[in-house]
Amino acid sequence: MLHYTEKIREIAGRLLKQGVVDVFIGYRKGSVPMMNNPLLIRDPGSTDLLYWDSNCALNLCNYLTGRKDRIGIVATGCVSRNIVTHIVENQISRSQLYVVGIPCTGMISHRAVIRAVGGREIIEFEEQGERFLVRGRDFEEIFEKNDFLQSNCAVCRYPNPVLYDEMLGERVPGYEGDDVYRDVEKVEQMSSEDRRGFFSRMISRCIRCYACRDACPLCYCPTCFVDESRPQWVGKSIDPVDTMTFHLLRAFHCAGRCTDCGACERACPMGIPVRQFTKKLNKDVQELFSWEAGLGLEQRPPLDVYRQDDYDGFIR
Amino acid sequence: MTAYRVYSKEEWTSAVKALESHYQVFVPVKDGDFHLFGLLSEGKRPDFDFQNTHLSPKSIVYPQSERMFEYSLDGEDPDAHMLKEAPKDFSPRAIVGIRPCDALAFQRVRVNFDTPRYRDPWWVSRFESTTFVGLGCNAPEATCFCTSVGGGPFSEAGLDVLLYDLGDRFLAKVLTSKGDGLLKKALGGMEADGTLVRQAESLALKVTEAMPAVVPVDGLKDKSVLELFEAPFWEDVAFGCINCGTCTYLCPTCWCFDIQDEVLGKSGDRIRNWDSCMFPLFTLHGSGHNPRGGKVARVRQRFMHKLKYYLDKYNEGVQCSGCGRCVRSCPANIDIRQVAELMNSL
């Protein structure tokens, strides 16, 4: 996706020069292979800092919350769905935004790449179309990007922005398989004890840094429940019960809102597959309400509407 | 005269095993995608073929969550509402395979917990009961910058023994009597001859020379605190930051904590947990006011503390040992090396 870089610079320069936007949000090339740095520019002269490749996996929508200015922003399919969610949830207004859409061919899982080279240190990364090259002190490997997609990107059905002012390329095909939720189904089939064991083992490494929460554009509460002290909802030690409480509550808070962008998993410094929680809820919401988050501005998420003719008696 | 012992790699593994009857032995173990320090007694297999552990060994001396006191809220209990020290384990422990940057980090942290006026009894007792067996770095990572901040890939600061990996064997250099005591309890090995010592020295020299100090911190001491505080670059530095605790929790020199009471029924614990200056709650006042209410202020605090306040207060270098963990793991790629450069050249 390297070739989008030039176009992004061009458009950002144009928008800033013409005063269409006050700021432009994209990425800067990172100082470490396979890591890029979210960037905000105001000066049309510094558009050369903008960069794009298949390692732009934090969700830029996260940087929109509460902004008052007019913003140009680069958005892939999932980021655009979060922007929709942000608009629907009144976190930003459509009129403030100029969305530069990227038909996304997926982000690379840096962890999978490091695993594939046996944990050896990667010093250079070079994207070459649908392939990429990694170099270490005494090795060089070329991989097919499709073999190293983040697990959410590998089954992404909405790679094209659902909301944009300008699109950077031809639309790309989304995933069409019917096994998007295969991992969740495996967990569903476990006995409740096994499932508890599965999730407990999964989060046993959690260091409570909250990177999963902080990377998530949905987590914009002025005070997160884990930071409340009166009353205090959850203990702050690394007691497994408290850690589990944090993860479960965080996930439930995202139910019906999560776009499966994968930023939480990408950000986790311990490599915990935290999407196992949110993805199950995405599946439930889809089954119960035929709902997938962020696909359109017209409808509110199912868990924040009240209808007198709701088919569930308990809520009427 | 400095003593050196040499062990074949197999011998070293059994030597470490033999330490178990004298110490809680922490060793680097491969755990999924990472190396982490683990307890040998938990059946972990030491693996000394690593660059650095994903998490620093900080928690061995300074646990992420520690029960300080316990108390009863039961009115019937004559000791109700009295804080009693919770039982703690200060038995001898050894960290075998700690990298020199992480050993240096304990020295940098010590100035906070062990001062002429205040001594944190638990940090100090655990630190003193620990023997640090370092492993020199033959292959520092591209993100490592220990030589820029007063350390080095074979730095001996804060170590009791320094191991040199000579391919098929380890050469152990005894640095303190504590280290001497540890090696006497380890089995096997033999006195090393001068040839091996020279081999180790030339290895150390070669690796160290290949790692010039590239992160400038030399000008920080003379900079004005206020000018740095008000520098124009903080907003740009902080923009990408998501304010998670990755940098501070992975950092071997971050020491901040929070104290919490946890009560179940009629008994309670007073617990000390690591805290992070990245979190809003870290500075939230009882009144509701937060002096560091925004992300930019929090990010600035982290770098100012490490690279300026600490330096000014203790004059013992910066509060960073150059391990590079924050650089490697920051989800938003905020790089302390670049920030140091910005600050140093202001």
Number of helices of chain B: 12
Determine Rg of chain B (CA atoms, Å).
22 Å
- Amino-to-carboxy terminus distance of chain A: 49 Å
Supply the helix-strand structural class of chain A: alpha/beta
Q: Note the quaternary state here.
A: heterodimer
What string gives the helices and strands of chain A in order?
A: HEEEEHEHEEEHEHHHHHH
The proportion of residues forming helix of chain A, as a percent range, comes to 25-40%
Inertia-based shape of chain B: globular
Number of domains of chain B: 2
Shape of chain A: globular
Structure in words:
Chain A contains 10 helices and 9 strands. Chain A is an alpha/beta fold and 316 residues long. Chain A has one domain. In chain A, the strands form 2 sheets. In chain A, strands 1, 2, 3, 4, 5 and 9 form a 6-stranded mixed sheet that branches. Chain A has a 3-stranded antiparallel sheet with strand order 6-7-8, with no helix packed on it. Chain A is globular and about 55 Å long. In chain A, 42% of the residues are buried. Chain B is α+β, with helices and mostly antiparallel strands and 346 residues long. Chain B has 2 domains: 4-209, no CATH class; 225-344, no CATH class. In chain B, 32% of the residues lie in helices and 20% in strands. Chain B has helices at residues 9-19, 58-61, 100-113, 121-128, 177-185, 194-209, 225-229, 234-239, 246-250, 295-314, 325-329, 336-344, and strands at residues 4-8, 24-31, 34-39, 65-72, 84-85, 93-98, 130-135, 161-165, 169-174, 190-191, 257-264, 267-274. In chain B, a hairpin with a 2-residue loop joins strand 11 and strand 12. Chain B is globular, with a radius of gyration of 22 Å. In chain B, 45% of the residues are buried. Classes of the chains: A alpha/beta (316), B alpha+beta (346). The interface between A and B is large, with 40 and 44 residues.
